[in-house]
Each structure stands twice: as C-alpha cells, then as structure tokens.
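Cont'd.
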Amino acid sequence: MLRKLMYLWIALLVMVPITWSTVFGATLQNARWVTRNDAEIPYVRMVMDLSEPVKASASIDESGRLTTITLKNTDVGTVRKWWQMDPAIAGSAKIVQDGKNVTITIATPTSIDTKDISVFSLKKDTVNNKPYRIVIDVKKQAAKKATNTSLKDKMKQLQEKQKKDKQKADTKKNKSNDTKKATTPPVTTSTQPDRTVIHANTPYRTSGGLAGKVITIDPGHGGSDPGAIGPNGTMEKSLTIGIARYLEAALKAKGAKVEMTRTTDVDVFAPNASGVNELQARVNVANQINSDAFISIHINSFTNPSVGGIATYYYSKTPYDATLAQKIQDQIMDEPNFNGDRGIQEGNLYVLRHSDMPAVLVELGFISNPKEEQALNEDSTQKSFANKIVQGLINYFGGA
Amino acid sequence: MYWKRLMSAGLLACMLITVVGCSSDTTQTGTSKGKAKTEQSATTQDGANLVKRTLYVPREDGSGLQPMTIEVAKNRATPKAAVLAVIDVDRKHKYPIFTKEMGVDSVTVKDGIATVEVNSAFVKGNGGDLTTQLQIGAIVNTLTAFPDIKGVLFALKGKKVETIGNFDTSSPLTTMQSLNK
C-alpha cells in the first residue's frame, strides 16, 4: 500500500510540470526597464525575458494613458508585479496573470497613440546567452511633439546635409588639386570628407502587417556608376531603377510608406564619389526616416555567361535580417526564364551591414547571362519581381 | 580522376615555386631573379622542409571556392606567393575572374592581420557582386589558412580600402567558410 502511494506521488510529481507546460507555453523569467536618452526622442524600454517564444499584442485605452500588452499563453512566474518607472515617460507598469495570458499595463503621464509605442520580439541569442524576449518601447510625448517631422521634412534635412558634404568634398578636392599644381610630390591626403553617418532613432517594426510600414528601396548603382553591363549592353543601373519603380507603386498600393534612395539616373551622394560615401548616403536615407526594412535591388554578374539564378543577400546584424531574406527569396526564386534558386547568402555588403533595420540585397538574375539579360529587359519580368518582393514583405510583416 | 588531381596538384606546386621565385615579396626584398632560381632548384632537390598550403580557387561555375592543397618549400611558402598562385590558377580557367588589369603588389602581416596592397583595378568591383565576392573570398580564405593570419585588409597606395565594389572591407575580413565548396 505504501509502495502504491509512493508511485502515485512520483507520478503526480512527474505529471505536474507536464500539465503546467501544456497550460502555459512560456514562463516570464525576468523583467527590466531603462530610460534611453541617447535617441532623438527619449523612450522607456521594458524587456521581458521568456522561456519560450510568445505571441504578443498591444492595445491603448480610450484615454490614451493606459497601454496593455498581452503575452499569450504565458505564466507570470515569480517576477515583481508592480514597477515604478520614469514619471516623465511611463510612470509605472503592472504585470498580472490574466487567465492563460500575462498582461502588462503601462501608465503614461500623457495620452499616447500607436505610433508612440513599439512592441517587438527578439529570438534566443545563444552566443550572448540571452533568452527569448519581448521588448516594449514607449516614447516621450513632449519631446516628440517638439521634434516631430514628416518623412518629407526628414528627407529634406538629409538632402541638405548630403549636399553640404558634397560641397565640402569638392572644396577639399579643389584645394588638393591646387596643392598638386603648386608642389610636384604626389598628394597623399584624402580628398573625401568625413562621411556623414545617420542612425535611426526609433526601433524598426517586424509585425502587424505591411500597411503603414516604412520601406526604403535602394535601386543599385546609378549616375556615374552603371554597375555591371550585359553582353547586349544593358546597364545594371537601368534595370534596378525600373524594378524599383514598380516595387514602389506596388508597396504604396498595399499601404506602405516608401522612400527611394534615388528616383532617376543619378548618384545618391555625388558623381564618382568613393564607395563609402555613395553607399553610406543610401544607408542614411533608410536610417534617417526610421525605416522598418531596407531593400537594395541589384542584378548579378559573372564571367561565365552560363551562370544564372536568383539570390538574396543579408547580413546578420539584427535577429530579422535572415528571416526577411528568406521570406523574399521564397517568392522570387522561381521566376520563369531564370536559372533558379541560388538561395539566401550572408554577405558583408556595405548597405546591409550599416543600415539600422533588417535589410536585404536582392540579386535578380545575372545580367551576364544573355537569356536572363533579355528577360530582365521585359516589363512583365520587372513587374513580376516587384510583386513577388511585395508578397515576401507581406509574409515577413505577417499579413497585409 | 585521381591522376588528374595529382597532376593538377603537382603542376600547381611547380607554379607556386616559380611564382615565389619571381616575386618581390616584402619579406624577401633584394633577391635577384637568378639567385632565386638557384635556391628554388636546391630546395626542390632537397625535398625536405616542405609544408602543406591550401589555396582557395574560384570555381568556374560560380558556386564557390575550391580548396586545393599543395606542398611547397617552407622558406618559399609566403602569403604573397599563395595569393599570386590563386590568381594564376584562376587566370588559366576559361572564365577567369581576376582580370589582367588586377594586380597585387605586396602582402604584409602584422599582429595576425594580413594587408594586401592592390591596384585600383582591384577595388572597382565592376564585375558584379558574385565576381567580387569570389575575388575577395579567394584571397581572404587562402591567407587565413596560414596559421599566423586571422584577418585580411586591403590597401591601395598605402591606404586602407574601405569598400571593394559593394562589399565592406573596412575591418579585417575573416574566413568565409560558406564559400568553400
């Protein structure tokens, strides 16, 4: 009898965690917060450490002063339930178990709307030993109103800054040429100005559908830089701008906000600029307007004309770059008249490495392959690529 | 197939020794062509002090880099010789990716970082991203196969090259394992 009781007790001990884990998909392991004053608009960041990935949703009440974030199918665990935070941005947070879910209610001193709050998830980081996380950012209101600018205004500011940089570069170049004329020894000083590096000041978004997302399209090359040239004389820069225009229209039709690094056949920084200045100028466009995704459009080239196919490059600087690349590659890889799927590849490409948001560089076939060069010149192919990239973005952001 | 590989390796080894004999590596300044040839002959006859070196050569189908292991005299197995050997093998292909205009002047190694001094044709990267990726990868992977080289930088006229084509070369590049196929 005693032995039977013992077995029953052991069985119960085993069953409890199993039952618990089927009730709750994840456990909240820790919570923390910090005020970030290093951004243009200060914000409070709350981070929830979780044992498993969870789905989260957010809502704001009618007054705009109570924001509730729901972590689905999560056990609240033993974390502190009441948090006193920054009274100027988000005064307090309450974490409670609400049935199968955990709710985090954040009180703000003034009314906020959906643009002021950002909720995103981070994957488990085995390298840095970090668990799955849900991050909640709440922006400061007064500061935001003082510095709030539209996409157009921001682009204007950026264009002025880049124009000044270009003038600075030209002045330096002229000065160095003068020096060259005056003295015979070769000039060893750089003719390039210090590059302007602009960083995004709000986090990118990765969920909630494509509508309303800010997408920067970068048509590769342009102006003094034709890019690769096909056997029949097609220039890469002409194809990339064509596809980019179709992509811009298709994205806008789905409600996305779109910015192009160039809209005509021009250099983004200046003709014959250094690689760094030209590529950083493109990155700056995306960072300046806090883009949610950066799409750089290129056409590949190789010496062997039989080589072809479609590839997407990414650089793993955020947890989402590879996901974005895969979502897009899944759509574009089977375009007819191309040599198939070359897959997603990690590449140390400048625009991917230096953009602050998830970014990809698509290589839409090989201009060096006569069959693919011909297909790329067709409007139907360019439109098809554009529509497929849009579908990839829809899948990435989780629905239109 | 085995004999074809063996012959290719043998040919490559001979080529590497020849390249070394003619090179003006920064670690071997002042060696006359004639003297180098004499030394090469002596080493070959001796047969001792051979070391294995792996070269990473671009594949003609653009699928990646092909590792090739060769044996070469220890005192001639310099980083620059290895880079020149890779370029030389590539240029014998039907579709070489290193153009005739591209040149490597020197390879210096300091604190585990190799700096490859290249000419301006090297940094333009007009051949397309796959071409540039394999050019960079072939050099970086060949150099980082040396036990004392952990990263690779490129320089033009003594100044660090920050980009080659669309690729960022501003910080030392490490082995690109995914290209080795």
